[in-house]
């Protein structure tokens, strides 16, 4: 959705609040992205109305964070996060305010936000309410903390990661005073739940300007204060360009020989761990002295052409850091696609036989022998030793497998 269309569609929410004697504004990331000419995905609204008032005014709501002032207002095709003006009490653990106080003044609400570009409010006439010169900082391509930078970073150390992530996404410079505050408070990152940090790292590693942010990460000493990463005794840790989180972590495990049991420290999902281990397997495969085509076919069958090509591209782009020699005759994206396209099957379920068919064909009851036979059949089919035909597979098993 482009330009101001999302704002136009959300105006009814603000109109409803204003018609009932409440103040309301668009705020946060949607205003920032609108001013930067970036695509909008959602719209957030801040208001003087208390959460109970918001619930009374709108027919369909979800009290997603009512204790902190946030109510989801449901529209026909969209939902809107509506949050009461608030100011935060003292912070604990470098992350959470001890209390939240609802207020009636917009200034107090935006004064608690992290960076000036995120502290801009906008009314339905597209007039800005910009107390901290956030729009000027956007035009100057500066990431600057709201108010006193040291206070903002001491309150919530996750703001350090957010600032670095914004830099990777925008190519903006970080204001020197804000950068200094990040450096002085980086120790606070060790108090932040790693799950919250991972969310920022995933966005960071996919940023278009990661290379610029790498220098910031090293100057701030981010990794020294994060579990898993702090086990790597390397000042300039490898951070790839044009990657994803799982492949990045896999490359770190490969380069610095980190046991995959250490992944537990990241508290990521089992699916993400499987992805990381798959990428590690692919790196290890290409790190062999000799690679047979049959082995390459099995690798592509097991992990798919996309993962294999992603690893090859990363190796080619960072051959020195990953220390795997790029071989254009084997690590060739066109060859990988050709092998993948010619695979006779893409999953064991594609086989023309299953356990029931094999039991009938060989007049035997089920047992461990079935798994052994199916694995051998799968291997033979993907290497074109036998066609994926019920009759041919059964005959192949009679001739080549001892049952």
UniProtKB/TrEMBL annotation:
User: Which principal EC class is assigned to this enzyme?
Assistant: transferase
**Catalytic reactions of this protein:** a tRNA precursor + 2 CTP + ATP = a tRNA with a 3' CCA end + 3 diphosphate; a tRNA with a 3' CCA end + 2 CTP + ATP = a tRNA with a 3' CCACCA end + 3 diphosphate
The UniProt record lists the FHA domain at: 34-97
Provide the binding site for Mg(2+).
Answer: 42, 44
PROSITE patterns noted in UniProt:
FHA_DOMAIN
- Enumerate the GO terms in the molecular function aspect: ATP binding; CCA tRNA nucleotidyltransferase activity; CCACCA tRNA nucleotidyltransferase activity; magnesium ion binding; tRNA binding
Which cofactors, by name?
A: Mg(2+)
A UniProt-annotated Pfam family: PolyA_pol
Which of this chain's residues are annotated to bind CTP?
29, 32, 113, 156, 159, 162, 165
Q: Where does ATP bind?
A: 29, 32, 113, 156, 159, 162, 165
Organism superkingdom: Bacteria
Q: What EC number(s) would the UniProt record show?
A: 2.7.7.72
Q: What does this protein do?
A: Catalyzes the addition and repair of the essential 3'-terminal CCA sequence in tRNAs without using a nucleic acid template. Adds these three nucleotides in the order of C, C, and A to the tRNA nucleotide-73, using CTP and ATP as substrates and producing inorganic pyrophosphate. tRNA 3'-terminal CCA addition is required both for tRNA processing and repair. Also involved in tRNA surveillance by mediating tandem CCA addition to generate a CCACCA at the 3' terminus of unstable tRNAs. While stable tRNAs receive only 3'-terminal CCA, unstable tRNAs are marked with CCACCA and rapidly degraded.
* Similarity comment: family membership: Belongs to the tRNA nucleotidyltransferase/poly(A) polymerase family. Bacterial CCA-adding enzyme type 3 subfamily.
Q: How does it assemble?
A: Homodimer.
Further information: A single active site specifically recognizes both ATP and CTP and is responsible for their addition.
Q: What is this protein called?
A: CCA-adding enzyme
Traced from the root, the source organism's taxonomic lineage reads:
Bacteria, Bacillati, Bacillota, Bacilli, Bacillales
